[in-house]
Amino acid sequence: MAVFLSALGFGVVTAAILAISAVGFTLQFSVTNVFNLSFGSVMTISGFVAYWLNSAGLGIWPAMAVAAIAGGALSLAINELLYEPFIRHGVNLFGMVIVTISVGLICDHALQAIVGPSFFSYEAPAGKAFHFADFVLTGQELAIIGIAVALTVLVQAALQYTRLGKAMRGLSVNPSLARACGVPTRRVIALAWFVSGVLAGIGGVALFLDISTFTATTGSEFLIVIIAAAVLGGIGSPRGAVLGALVVGIVTEVGAAYWNPELKDVLAFSVLIVVLLVRPQGLFSQLATERAVAR
Amino acid sequence: MVEDLAKSFGGVHAVDGVSFAIPRGSLTGMIGPNGAGKSTVLGMIAGAIRPDRGSIALEGQEIAGLPSHRTARRGVVRTFQAASVFPRMTVLENLLLGVPPWHGEGIAAALLGRRRWRREEREQVLRARELLARLGISSMADTFAAQLSGGQKRLVEIGRAMMARPRLLLLDEPMAGVSRTLAPVIEALVAELREEGMTVLLIEHELALVERLCSPVVVLAQGRVLMQGEMAEARANPEVRRAYLVG
Q1: What are phi and psi for residue B25, nearest 5 degrees?
Q2: Which residues of B touch A182 (CB under 8 A)?
Q3: Which of B84, B105, B160 lies at the smallest CB-CB distance from A164?
Q4: Rounded CA gap, B234 and B217, in Å?
Q5: pLDDT per residue over B22-61, tens digit each?
Q6: How do strand B200-203 and strand B168-172 relate by DSSP bridges?
Q7: Which of A177, A184, A185 is facing B84, going by the closest CB pair?
Q8: What's the pLDDT score for residue A82?
Q9: Chain B within 8 Å of A160 (Cβ-Cβ)?
Q10: Per-residue confidence (pLDDT) for residue B104, from 0 to 100
């Protein structure tokens, strides 16, 4: 029981990190229909921005805030400078996936060329341990969970209740109708990339804090689990992404405690495959069959 | 209002120097054989298509070349030939999305101006419900738009356009894809809009309908204006007859 509860604690922390990232990934996808596989690189680069600031003496939480902005700016820049030209030339959804893989690889390897192939870690105290029965969480972990809850609630509320959120939901399905309703689609798309990058930045720093050592490719390695969570919940649905993150996070950590930690990803994808066999559209789906890159 | 408008697609002159006026408060019809350039003209007025040259003035203000979300905010609101709704939103949400000028647009605005924004939202919901009642689809307010029939989607689309209180309403073949039971409902609705003094440009290929509803009419053929006048004149005009026979 003690093993189970402590694994559950780890699972919730992993789920929190997954939720932040998966919501960012799925939000951008739901607006633009670009399946962005360079998302992990934005996480990593933001994580390193926080690392450099942290090494220079800044506390980890302010460093995370700066990294969030850096992630947003990077994500926006990648879209405007690299993806936009391809989209303008009419590259289809599958072509864009290849473009995003390439951009991700280039970012990871460029970063590796700068920082080298070694391991890094933040200078950040884990904080006081809080005991909830057999459940032990550090102050740092509690903060990550709190940030995840706040961010996901904020994104969900913004999507549900603001006109901007409605515009975002409408945009990916029918951009010309959205424009005819007075929605400034270019600006909304830019905002989606920015917000997605901010979430990638926060998710990246949270991930690096949690796993304590990281390299120039850690974000991209974790991306596959993020995608599992996003797809499990129904790609394009932030609510689904949170649920998917909880399932994947808890199953992998509990599984790792009783089984082999090396097989975490195997577990994540086993869950994904079983769920998709029962519900091919994911738990909450918005996946339309006929979609094109929104522009 | 529209002067010397032109657009070519890959060397084909889809619209070649079109000039006509839509008198304020009129229901102006635009007719012409397939490929005459009607939808291209409408697209240019709506801002969805950038004209190669020419001018479009809305109550004296130039709007040619503005992107479509800007023309929409100036009050030029369109419907599409294929009835266009947001399928994963409810009928009510579809109507609410039709309203510019978007006070609650930014997250900051949504947080700071919450009280005003909430009041506006309440008013808009009220208006949307009134419109739905008028369109006879009140019972479908919370239905996903994807589940509607073609004609019902058209009603939602026109309702969405009316929510914006347009200064110029552009209807692109509103009868396309509409069942025979709903066609008269939509016709009556368009006639009501005319009685209320809304300025409308209607593209339609069914001449009898245009004759019942529109005055004046603009006849397009091969990207040019053949004539502008009353439908009776158009019927008598030999050039128009020839265009329809040839086209």
Answers
A1: 80, 5
A2: 69, 72-73, 100-102, 164
A3: B105
A4: 8
A5: 888 899 999 888 888 888 889 999 988 888 888 888 888 8
A6: parallel
A7: A177
A8: 94
A9: no
A10: 46
Question: What 3-state DSSP class applies to B14?
Answer: strand
CATH for A2-278 is: 1.10.3470
Q: Is A198 on the interface with B (CB under 8 A)?
A: no
CB atoms within 10 A of CB B30: 28
Burial (0-12, 13-18, 19+ Cβ within 10 Å), B108:
exposed
> Which residues are bridge partners to A214 per DSSP?
A120
Chain B nearest CA to A161, separation (Å): 9
- Total length of chain B: 247
For chain B, residues with pLDDT lower than 70 are 1-6, 8, 100-117, 245-247
| Separation between Cα atoms, residue B12 and residue B245, nearest integer Å | 22
Partner residue opposite A182 with nearest CB, options B87, B96, B100: B100
H or E element in which residue A53 lies: helix A39-55
| CA A228 to chain centroid | 11
Which CATH number covers residue B169? 3.40.50.300
Would you tell me the crossing angle of helices A139-161 and A185-211 to the nearest 10 degrees? 160
Interface TM-score (ipTM) > 0.95: no
Mutate to test the interface with B, among A163, A168, A239, A289 (most CBs of B within 10 A): A163
Minimal-distance CA residue of chain B relative to A170: B86
pTM over 0.95: no
Residue B113, pLDDT score: 60
Provide the shortest C-alpha distance from residue B200 to chain A (in Å): 16
Nearest to B86 among A163, A174, A182 (CB): A174
pLDDT single digits (tens) A175-203: 888 888 888 888 889 999 999 999 999 99
B154 and chain A in contact, CB less than 8 A: no
CB-CB neighbors (< 8 A) of B160 in chain A: 181
Domain that holds residue B215: 2-246
Catalogue the E-assigned strands of B21-147. 27-31, 53-58, 61-62, 76-78
Q: For residue B68, which residues of chain A lie inside 8 Å, CB to CB? A: 176, 179-180
8 Å CB contact of A182 and B69:
yes
